[in-house]
Design goal:
The complex is a heterodimer of chains A (395) and B (692). By secondary structure, chain A is of the alpha/beta class. Helices cover 28% and strands 27% of the residues of chain A. Chain B has 17 helices and 37 strands. In chain B, helix 5 runs parallel beside helix 6 and helix 9 (396-413) packs antiparallel against helix 10. Chain B is globular. In chain B, 57% of the residues are buried. Classes of the chains: A alpha/beta (395), B alpha/beta (692).
């Protein structure tokens, strides 16, 4: 439903200039909409985008995520060619090495789904994995999956470049704008017709909540209740070295220290190794400062998996928030019960890789009435769904 | 290769040290035992250490303080900072060309537990402030841990070969900084309740109340009840075309090379900045036998103490006020420096450009606090204190005194019954004060005397050791205030103690009874220049206090002061009418510079602003203009400014200045976000651990 409300300042307002909001703004503007993107920070990507690792894979087990990320990969990988601006795309693949039977079973069990969606992913034996992951610890290595078409992107470069391209298409970005309330048209059906911020009122027929970790707050302003809870994860980056590691490596074993669920790392196009782990117990809240616990734990896991990583030098640490939903699946679509209000939230830590796919699909839904991907699959992300459902096997 | 070691020095012990052999790019060369790689390379005439991966530009030393990574080399295959890595016998050092390979083997590492320490007081930085605080704290029996990133205690005191200002009671005035450092260090080492970790930088403060320390290469965590941050200062940056050339670096790096490691780092030196740091660096250079081609200062007057300025002027060093550096040039390393006069709005005036040959350009345009850990510790609610330059930039004498006060303050907060005398705060304020008014010279009461001191101290600075050393108590300051000017009252026995101790070299001793017949006087001057520059019988060019030419004088003797420090006394025979005026002898003849070229259109666009990632001013300006960003962090994202090893320590001020230039002074620009670590840490350090 394209908004053609006369008297509106904009056709659409996107709340949040992050991993999801910026590509969405870009795609809405590309569809000819007059878009305003607002954010409380001072520039794009200053929320969770810059905390993202930048891994992009289509090889999930959830069909919606598979299709959305396939879209993202298409957009990301062609970005330089289409815009002239490099965003650090490196098609090094994803590798999940396996050392124990239980992880082998988990990964093998989702291969059929992945194959069904024609994903380029295969089970490699020990030698195959050792060929793909330079220097991997072979002791007990059973094999693993490798998906060569996945890769990595710089979230920082992407946020800046998508912003700049959206601006070229006429989109307007307003930073340091804090949304205080929604404006409603109460006549007939209850509709959102704009937002109020500290600096003024902005009107539009469509308002999209892409506020990441702050999504629940924004939903409440529209009278919508979707539980998104931020879960805090730490990450770090090393000094750059010459390319030695192709794929982004994910080890889904729980850590021997009893504190980590899985951990992952990859060497980005510019040579740094970026790394992160998933805490065994979620750390709910908005803490963004680093703890002393992270580095000793992840360093051990990294050098245990690839001893050669001991030669790296750690440069910087940070922490970002995973906006989690009860069922571990993102929430994208038209919000129930309110006209003109859409959400693209609860990306559960995968907002960066899903961002362009979500943006392109939601822009299509808003402007053309239906998403790019299969509508039935897209509905799996629906805000109107029952959030009591089960978690995806492999997040 | 050229031997660039200092073999004789008027103050420092330049006797030959044991050497070790190592190789650089396959060639056998010698290092001093226990010397860092950077100094060993400089001593062998090697100033280019690596080529940057972005554009293969040559790089050399910059901070010499472990803070940046301009000096990366490959040592036995590993990329290391040359300025903090000790040479080992047989080490294979290579210049790093672009990005390094991931070093090391595939062997597994056996992890050890990261040890955690609990301590009453953690002091970060064993320099003047930290050590002074520790001495106060230790007296009360508190358990203290001092961590310092260097191999020796004393911080920058160890680089200060000159006599300190202040008062003898409060901060050891009249002693050389390096001797004060030794003294404080030896007092600290006596104390049983003080633990010392050298070569152990604090690299991050964390949300959970712990501080990460890279303890001699092994990561450890400290849980302090109290933290005192005395991390000192770093040099402010200055960006101009060519500022990234090897040979352009900080005055602190220079003092490290010359005064700590006795490397003759330069043969033709130029200095930008007429504050105390720049002026003292010039003096230190002359002591090391390094020719100083000139000093530029952007303001109409040098900001440093007048006595420092005058002593370099007397030796013949040209000081160009209202001038700035326009560009540095050279083929792979610095060859030439071009300066220009500035108008009232600090813009270069066309036609005033002058070009000097120089192999080294020192940046000495002020200091800013090293306070990254401090600000994080405050943010996370540590019980944290700061003293010295980490708190307020001032002289080291003020740093010592502020440490003393903070030590007592911490004890009070820990419920110890200690007093902080009210006068201490006044003393601290005086020690921190910028130089005050300069007055007309008042010659005191010497008229009727044959022998008397000429006290030429005319600027209000916090200094009074002359009043303390006179055995006749003949020198006084009004109201006994440290910043008041001293004057000579009545009686002089010619003991030369005042001449010997005056940190500003502002006192001479006149003896008019020397040769009444020929009307010649004997004047005793303080002398700290290298041996062999003057000798008895030599006819020299006598100069006045501010360097003005007076005519000839004859050197009668050069002798040890016989009292206290290593300063020598130079006895000059000079006409009686010049005796009160003479204050020095000119050592150098200023060379007339060539006229230089003004900046070409767009030349400044190529100025490197972020040295770590080699981002130019032009790139930053265009990005701000094209996108309208008002967030430093957006520049980080788009251009990688501030994303390199130093983490924005060097370029932050420069980038904020560019923002203001492009967007106007009032623009609301979001600041750069700082994160751990304050310096890069080997991944292996987190695996090793001290525990089992």
């Amino acid at each position: 439903m394209a908004s053609t409300n006369t008297g509106s300042d904009f056709d659409a307002i996107v709340i949040g200039a992050g991993s999801v909001g910026v590509p969405l703004t870009y795609f809405l503007a590309k569809e000819g909409m007059k878009v305003l993107c607002i954010d409380g920070n001072s520039s794009s990507g200053q929320g969770e985008n810059k905390a993202a690792i930048g891994g992009v894979r289509a090889t999930h087990s959830d069909p919606a995520k598979i299709l959305i990320c396939q879209e993202s990969l298409k957009i990301f990988s062609a970005w330089k060619e289409n815009t002239g601006t490099g965003i650090g795309w490196k098609m090094g693949g994803y590798c999940f090495p396996v050392y124990r039977e239980q992880e082998e079973k988990t990964l093998q069990s989702i291969l059929p789904i992945q194959k069904k969606f024609s994903l380029d992913i295969d089970w490699l034996d020990e030698k195959g994995i050792a060929r793909v992951v330079n220097g991997i610890n072979k002791k007990g290595l059973r094999g693993g999956t490798f998906s060569p078409k996945d890769g990595q992107i710089s979230p920082l470069l992407a946020a800046e470049s998508f912003t700049n391209e959206a601006k070229k298409l006429g989109a307007v970005f307003r930073f340091r704008e804090h949304v205080e309330s929604m404006m409603f048209d109460e006549g007939g059906q209850r509709s959102v017709v704009g937002v109020r911020t500290k600096t003024g009122e902005f009107k539009a027929g469509v308002v999209v909540n892409a506020a990441g970790a702050k999504a629940t707050e924004i939903c409440k302003m529209a009278g919508v209740n979707i539980p998104v809870v931020p879960d805090s994860h730490e990450a770090g980056i090393t000094a750059p070295v010459k390319q030695f590691l192709g794929p982004l490596v994910v080890d889904i074993r729980p850590g021997p220290e009893g504190k980590t669920a899985n951990f992952y790392f990859g060497q980005v196009e510019s040579g740094q190794v970026i790394f992160c782990y998933t805490p065994l117990k979620p750390f709910y809240g908005e803490a963004r400062a680093c703890t002393s616990e992270f580095m000793p734990i992840i360093a051990r896991r990294m050098v245990d998996l690839i001893p050669k990583l001991k030669g790296l030098t750690v440069r910087r640490l940070w922490r970002g928030l995973y906006p989690m939903t009860p069922d571990g699946v993102a929430v994208v679509g038209k919000a129930p019960g309110v006209e003109g209000f859409y959400v693209a939230i609860g990306m559960c830590g995968q907002g960066f890789m899903m961002g362009p796919g979500v943006g392109a699909n939601l822009a299509a839904l808003i402007t053309k009435g239906k998403p790019i991907i299969d509508q039935e699959v897209f509905k799996l992300l629906s805000p109107a769904r029952d959030f009591g459902g089960k978690k995806e096997k492999l997040a | 290769m050229a031997d660039q070691r200092i073999r004789s020095h008027p103050i420092l012990d330049a006797s030959q040290r044991a050497t070790v052999q190592f190789t650089f790019n396959g060639k056998q060369i010698l290092a001093g035992e226990g010397e860092v790689i950077s100094s060993a390379l400089f001593a062998n005439g090697i100033v280019v250490f690596n080529r940057h991966h972005r554009d293969m530009a040559p790089q050399g030393i910059f901070c010499a303080n472990g803070q940046c990574a301009q000096c990366l080399v490959l040592a036995d295959g590993r990329p290391v900072k040359a300025c903090i890595t000790l040479v080992r016998k047989g080490m294979d050092v290579r210049s790093l060309e672009g990005l390094p390979e991931l070093p090391g083997d595939n062997n597994e590492v056996k992890p050890n537990k990261i040890k955690e320490y609990d301590i009453d007081v953690l002091i970060i930085g064993g320099g003047p402030a930290g050590l002074s605080a520790a001495l106060e704290l230790a007296g009360a029996g508190v358990e203290i841990l001092i961590v310092d990133d260097k191999q020796a205690l004393g911080g920058k005191l160890g680089l200060q070969t000159h006599n300190f200002f202040g008062s003898m009671n409060d901060c050891h005035a009249g002693m050389r900084g390096m001797d004060i450092g030794e003294l404080l260090g030896s007092e600290i080492k006596e104390l049983k309740n003080v633990k010392l970790w050298l070569d152990s930088p604090a690299v991050g403060a964390f949300l959970d109340g712990k501080i990460g320390i890279l303890k001699q290469g092994v990561y450890t965590l400290v849980r302090p009840k109290n933290v005192l941050v005395t991390t000192g200062a770093r040099e402010k940056p200055l960006a101009f075309p060519g500022c990234d050339l090897p040979g352009v670096y900080g005055a602190g790096a220079f003092q490290t090379l010359v005064n700590r490691d006795l490397v003759k780092a330069s043969s033709k030196l130029f200095i930008v900045g007429g504050g105390n740091v720049g002026l003292i660096a010039a003096y230190h250079a002359l002591q090391a036998g390094i020719e100083v081609r000139g000093i530029v200062e952007a303001l109409p007057q040098c900001g440093g103490y007048k006595v420092h300025l005058d002593k370099v002027k007397r030796l013949g060093i040209p000081v160009w006020t209202s001038h700035t550096v326009l560009r540095a040039e050279g083929n792979g390393k610095l060859d030439k420096v071009t300066i220009a006069q500035l108008d009232k709005s600090f813009s270069p005036i066309q036609g005033t450009e002058r070009t000097f040959e120089a192999d080294t350009l020192l940046i000495a345009v002020g200091l800013s606090p090293v306070n990254e850990i401090l600000s994080k510790a405050r943010e996370f609610g540590f019980k944290v204190y700061a003293a010295g330059d980490a708190d307020v930039i001032a002289e080291a004498s003020a740093a010592m005194f502020s440490g003393k006060i903070i030590g007592r303050k911490m004890l009070q907060d820990m419920d110890f019954e200690v007093d902080i005398p009210k006068e201490w705060f006044e003393t601290l304020e005086m020690l921190r004060a910028k130089p005050g008014l300069t007055h007309e010279l008042s010659t005191g009461a010497q008229d009727a005397l044959e022998i008397y001191p000429m006290v030429r101290c005319t600027q209000e600075i916090p200094c009074n050791p002359c009043t303390a050393v006179c055995p006749r108590h003949s020198i006084e300051t009004s109201e006994s205030k440290m910043t008041s000017l001293p004057w000579f009252k009545n009686e002089c026995i010619g003991c030369t103690r005042c001449v010997t101790i005056c940190p500003g070299l502002a006192i001479t001793l006149v003896d008019r009874s020397y040769d009444l017949e020929e009307k010649l006087a004997l004047v005793t001057l303080p002398w700290e220049m290298p041996d062999g520059t003057v000798w008895p019988g030599r006819i020299v060019k006598a100069v006045g206090f501010e360097g003005g030419s007076l005519g000839q004088a004859k050197v009668i003797a050069l002798k040890a002061s016989g009292w206290q420090n290593k300063r020598k006394l130079l006895l000059l025979e000079i006409a009686c009418e010049l005796a009160d005026k003479v204050a020095g002898i000119q050592m150098y003849e200023a060379q007339e510079p060539e006229s230089g070229k003004s900046l070409a259109e767009g030349e400044d666009d190529n100025t490197i602003v972020c040295r770590c990632e080699r981002v130019t001013k032009g790139e930053i300006v265009s990005y701000i203009k094209e996108t309208g960003v008002t967030d430093f962090n957006a520049l980080k994202a788009a251009l990688r400014v501030g994303m390199g090893p130093c983490g924005g320590k060097t370029c932050t001020d420069l980038v904020m200045r560019i923002f203001r230039q492009v967007l106007g002074r009032e623009a609301n620009v979001e600041q750069h976000v700082e994160r751990p670590f304050t310096q890069e840490v080997p991944l292996s350090a987190f695996v090793k651990g001290e525990g089992k």
